Amino acid sequence: MRLFANGKRVTQASYGPGTIVSTDERYTVIEFDDHGRRTFVTTMVALEPTSAPAPVRAGAAGRARRAPRKAAAGKAVDGKVTAGKAIAGKTIAGKTTAGKATAGKAAAGSERKTS
Fold first, then answer.
1. Burial of residue 32 (number of CB atoms within 10 Å: 0-12, 13-18, 19+)
2. pLDDT in tens, the chain (115 residues)
3. Residues in a beta bridge with 17
4. Which residues of 40-62 are buried (b: 16+ CB within 10 A; e: fewer)?
5. How far is it, in rounded angstroms, from Cα 30 to Cα 13?
6. Where are the beta strands (DSSP E) in the chain?
7. CA–CA gap between residue 8 and residue 22 (Å, rounded)
8. Residue 61 pairs with which residues in a beta bridge?
């Protein structure tokens, strides 16, 4: 059993060249150039060191992050309901909806336009 250091370049018969992401006595995780990340049982994987350079990947920072969500229309925000649908059992302008949703009705007298 041969352990490679993290960041070392290796090659595997089925997947080709890759970079060691993590390794211990049980598992070896490799990020392959053309096949993505794969996990192997350390005692069973056949690896050879390689001098092939790692390819330059677009967006070296990793996966793009999604922008935070904004409060959707018709949802309760700080105890108030925005224009749109009321939420069942909530108080709207001093009135309780008594467990029934007031779908399609505007809250507090404002109207919602749909396009």
1. middle
2. 678 899 999 999 999 999 999 999 999 999 999 999 999 999 999 999 999 888 887 655 556 678 788 765 555 555 555 555 555 555 556 555 555 555 555 555 555 556 5
3. 11
4. bebeebebeeeeeeeeeeeeeee
5. 13
6. 9-12, 16-23, 27-32, 36-41, 47-49, 76-77, 80-81, 91-92, 95-96
7. 10
8. none
**How many residues make up the chain in this entry?**
115
Q: Which amino acid appears at position 114 of this protein?
A: T
d(CA 54, CA 66): 27
